[in-house]
Design a protein that fits this description.
- By secondary structure, the chain is α/β, with parallel strands linked by helices.
- It folds into two domains: 3-249 and 455-477, Aldehyde Dehydrogenase, Chain A, domain 1 (3-Layer(aba) Sandwich), CATH 3.40.605.10; 253-436, Aldehyde Dehydrogenase, Chain A, domain 2.
- It has 16 helices and 23 strands.
- The chain has helices at residues 41-58, 63-79, 81-92, 96-114, 116-119, 155-166, 181-192, 207-215, 228-240, 263-275, 295-306, 326-342, 377-380, 396-405, 419-428, 464-470, and strands spanning 3-5, 8-9, 12-13, 20-26, 31-38, 124-129, 132-140, 143-147, 170-174, 200-202, 219-225, 244-248, 253-257, 285-291, 345-348, 367-370, 387-393, 408-409, 411-415, 433-436, 452-453, 456-457, 472-480.
- Helix 10 links the parallel strand 13 (253-257) and strand 14.
- The radius of gyration is 25 Å and the shape is globular.
- The relative contact order is 0.14.
- Bound molecules: nicotinamide-adenine-dinucleotide (NAD).
- Nicotinamide-adenine-dinucleotide binds at residues 147-152, 156, 174, 176-177, 206-207, 210, 225-227, 230, 248-251, 282, 382, 384, 410, 451, 455.
């Protein structure tokens, strides 16, 4: 039976249908699981108007009221984490344990947002001048749009929405049209947690809906996560329409393995970070840089581990699930063809894998290439699939030059037991998030997540203190309580005395 997914607006499911719809697949079986409504520009306008009405009241809700809602929302996600994980696996395809990990990382941002009374505090300075005080306050922006990718259908919306709401804004979330159900679940749980109608809305769709949000005058800020070309477009269009924009883009994350590293640990890390979620993570490792002389031994250890990966339906206890769509699966497979043609050494070929699944899911097994060079498309492009490339480097300097020469700068890792080398790397590398013997260095909710270069447009990272900053704007008040001694004219520029 084919399901039906629609928008969630003003505290309830949308009742007006749509003129256009998209198909949502179960990637493990290849079946169409549901149809999802696509909003027109006019419908987005209706949603933004509802959010704008809600934002005007919500900005005046006390911190106590806001945090009460967030604590209740946190409890609902906590109790229903399995339901949310199952919804993610059904539409994204990642294995259930991985989906549960995504829910956990999203939950941590909700918990951070529960502490908003501390995080949104301003400063107060007494007697900046005689009997004059100054203080700063941070206020919400109004309606903010959150536009998210397919690969973390719960976690990425949760990077932004809880903090935006905690700060007193109303949110219009446009999730990926490929796996939209997690967003709708979150919306209904926000409503159940007592969030006033219209403060959190979900509108589904494609470019038309995104463009409507980017140009709508009542949308004050846009948080976007997705591929680099769209991130650049969203940043340019949103800022041209006067909005504050943070647009997180794609990645090509390198893991540097120095000769003194523990190669068993490095091989485990490369496999986990390369093939977890079928490589569909913006923090996945897609390039291992093996510094001489570790290459042969390291590739052997990685290949041995890859051979043990079970690919199949994420509900069957497999290690790795399918790709999100058939189109994406075929695109990733075409990169494997291209790598082979370009002369990279194909150590493990994922095209021949027999998945543990029924039907015709979008599977591609893990693929390992060695002797990859920076000219090959498997090196230059973000593949976003289970394809791991090993590049050989003669020295630390050569390895660093590769990482810094890459247009992306999302994440990177170094594997070494030399503290001095690790410290030098963290100082010299031009990347936003760095792991030292940690392959996927995703910051905790109370730090901020974001890359450099083509991995982020705008200057504000997601969640943590930067998230609070992004969803608020500052005021500074200078105040004096007058008594009769303050009289007299003085047209000079005010200075302290
Ligand atoms: P995508 O860019 O195709 O889509 C992201 C969002 O933009 C979706 O909501 C989509 O509907 C919308 N969109 C797509 N095409 C559009 C267009 N032409 N105009 C306007 N809107 C459009 O990305 P995706 O395939 O869903 O996600 C994978 C990408 O996201 C990868 O590149 C990955 O690296 C990146 N990503 C980055 C981060 C990060 O933190 N930097 C995190 C997760 C994913």
């Amino acid at each position: 039976m084919t399901g039906y997914i629609t928008h969630f607006v003003d505290g309830k499911p949308w009742e007006h249908g749509a003129t256009r719809q998209g198909e949502v697949h179960d990637p493990a079986t290849g079946q169409v699981a549901a149809l999802v409504d696509f909003a027109s520009a006019a419908e987005v306008g209706t949603v933004v108007a509802a959010a704008d009405r809600a934002a005007r009241a919500w900005r005046d809700a006390s911190l106590a009221k806001r945090t009460a809602v967030l604590f209740a929302f946190r409890q609902l996600i906590h109790e229903r984490r399995d339901e949310l994980a199952a919804a993610i696996t059904a539409e994204h395809g990642k294995v259930l344990s991985d989906a549960a990990g995504e829910v956990q990382r999203g939950l941590e941002v909700v918990e951070f947002a529960c502490g908003i009374p501390s995080a949104q505090r301003g400063f107060f300075s007494e007697n900046v001048s005689t009997e004059v005080d100054s203080y700063s306050i941070r206020q919400p922006l109004g309606v903010v749009a959150v536009i998210t990718p397919f690969n973390f259908p719960a976690m990425v919306p949760l990077w932004f929405a809880p903090i935006a709401i905690a700060c007193g804004n109303a949110v219009v979330l446009k999730p990926s049209e490929k796996d939209p159900s997690a967003a709708v679940l979150l919306a209904s749980w926000f409503a159940e947690a007592g969030l006033p109608d219209g403060v959190f809305n979900v509108v589904h769709g494609d470019k038309e809906a995104v463009d409507a949000l980017l140009t709508h005058p009542q949308v004050k800020a846009v948080s976007f996560v997705g591929s680099t070309p769209i991130a650049r477009y969203v940043y340019e269009t949103g800022t041209a329409h006067g909005k504050r924009v943070q647009a997180l883009g794609g990645a090509k994350n390198h893991m540097v393995v120095l000769p003194d590293a523990d190669l068993d640990l490095a091989a485990d890390a490369a496999v986990n970070a390369g093939f977890g979620s079928a490589g569909e993570r913006c923090m996945a490792i897609s390039v291992v840089v093996a510094v001489d002389p570790v290459g042969d031994e390291l590739v052997g250890k990685i290949a041995q581990r890859v051979a043990g990966i079970r690919t199949g339906d994420g509900r069957r206890g497999c290690d790795m699930g399918p790709l999100v769509t058939k189109v994406h699966r075929d695109k990733v497979a075409s990169y494997v063809d291209a790598g082979e043609r370009a002369g990279a050494k194909l150590v493990v070929d994922g095209r021949t894998v027999l998945p543990d699944a029924d039907g015709s899911g979008f599977f591609l097994g893990p693929t390992l290439f060695d002797q990859v060079t920076p000219q090959m498309s498997i090196y230059t492009d973000e593949i976003f699939g289970p394809v791991l490339s090993v590049v050989r480097a003669g020295s630390y300097e050569e390895a660093l030059a590769l990482v810094n020469g890459n247009p992306y700068g999302n994440g990177t890792a170094i594997f070494t037991n030399d503290g001095g080398a690790a410290r030098r790397f963290q100082h010299e590398v031009e990347v936003g998030m760095i792991g030292v013997n940690v392959p996927i260095p995703v910051p905790m909710a109370y730090y901020s997540f974001g890359g450099w270069k083509a991995s982020l447009f705008g200057d504000t990272h997601a969640h943590g203190a930067e998230g609070v900053h992004f969803f608020t704007r500052g005021k500074v008040v200078t105040s004096r309580w007058l008594d009769p001694s303050h009289g007299g004219l003085n047209l000079g520029f005010p200075t302290q005395h």
